[in-house]
Amino acid sequence: MKKMIKILAALAAGAFLFVSCYTIEQGEIIPDTKVPVNVGCLKGPSGLSMVKLFKDNEQNDEYNTKIAGAPDQITAGLTSGELDIAAVPMNLAANLYNKTNGSIRVLAVSGLGNLYIMSRVEISTVADLEGKTVVVAGQGATTEYALRYVLDKNEISDKVTLEFKEPAETAVAAISGSADIVMLPEPFASQVEDKADGMLRVLDINEEWKNLNNGQDIVMTCVVARSDFIESNGDDLTAFLEKFALSVQFCNTDIDKTAEYAQEFEIMEAESVKKAIPYCAITFIKDDEMKTKISDFLTTLHEVDPRSVGGTVPDEGFYYNAAEN
Predict the structure, then answer these.
(1) From CA 233, how far away is CA 179, in angstroms rounded?
(2) Residue partners of 99: CB distance under 8 A and separation at least 6
(3) Residue 214: band (very low, low, confident or very high) from pLDDT cuts 50, 70, 90
(4) Are 293 and 219 in contact (CB under 8 A)?
(5) What is the DSSP-derived secondary structure letter of residue 215?
(6) Which residue in 101, 119, 311, 319 has the fewest CB atoms around it within 10 Å?
(7) Omega of the bond leading into 187 within 30 degrees of 0 (cis)
(8) Is 230 a residue whose pLDDT tops 80?
């Protein structure tokens, strides 16, 4: 009898474990399947910040990941619902928030200023750009607005010719010799420094910006999520932010492995990544500090050109704060 009781108890326990992994609907036993969160980023610093998270995901399969070559691919993913969370340029996030009635919110700052003037000719101050042509990576992006602001404050905005190309095209122009002065974000600046003969890093636009704005940072990239995803997936969001913070830390401390993973995910060649990371300003800033940094930066960007942020500086609803949700 005692043996029979033990057997029945074991069977009951097994049945409990079996049922706990399933949902019973209308008499049917259906397996509980957790839907992966859809996460996207761009090739570049935002991609580098996520490589550890993506690498770990090969084991636990929590995320569907997308690494895009152009911002419009990420924008399309967010607006269509294909993506739940994404790392994007800061001014793109502001534009998207304003133009879609708050369909996305910003979760964290993921990258600060990493813009550099590279040159084959002697340049030591912003004033030395007068009369020169600068090929700029990204029209309508933070690169353009930051440079225009610096040129304007140095009173030479009408004395410098700007030509615009995509970041990869700008890097090719510098490496091939068809451009002697370029402005690039990381990690493209390090790639050019490595491969373009005589092309040196001559001006740090981030420092120029800070000198003109009482130490205010350029905010290059941020992580956003769809507002409806935030409202209905609090636990998933918390878990993602924890993993992303660890991924950022890994990127800044284990540069060799980050470079290896970046090449594996076809974000960038490993050797260029190793040189780029110290200049990339990859970071993780959230809550009130995030809000202050972004608000200050977007206010200045709005002064340069209201179109840069979608017409107006985003309101309070733009900022996600874990303590308030």
Answers:
(1) 48
(2) 310
(3) very high
(4) yes
(5) T
(6) 101
(7) yes
(8) yes
286 token code pair: 């959230």
Percent of the chain with pLDDT over 70: 89
Q: What are phi and psi of 14, to 5 degrees?
A: -65, -40
What distances in angstroms separate CA 180 from CA 113, 165, 192, one per listed residue? Answer: 23, 14, 11
Does the structure show a pLDDT above 80 at 32? no
**DSSP 8-state assignment for residue 178:** S
Amino acid at 17: L
**Pairing between strand 37-42 and 181-185?**
unpaired
Name the most confidently modeled range: 15-19, 29-33, 97-101, 187-191: 97-101
CA distance 120 to 3: 87
Judged by average pLDDT, the poorest of 15-24, 103-112, 209-218, 300-309 is 15-24
Asked whether the beta carbons of 167 and 44 are under 8 A apart, the reply is yes
pLDDT at 24: 44
Residue 37 near residue 240, CB atoms below 8 Å: yes
Choose among 285, 155, 303: nearest CA to 220: 285
Half-sphere exposure for 259 (CA within 13 Å, toward CB): 15
What would the two tokens of residue 20 be?
Answer: 């706990």
| Strand pairing class (161-165; 133-137) | parallel
Q: How far apart are CA 291 and CA 304, in angstroms?
A: 20
Residue 39 and residue 13 in contact, taking contact as beta carbons nearer than 8 Å: no
Element (H, E) at 243: helix 234-253
| Relative orientation angle of helices 167-176 and 188-195, to the nearest 10 degrees | 10
Going by C-alpha positions, the residue among 18, 107, 93, 45 that lies closest to residue 277 is 45
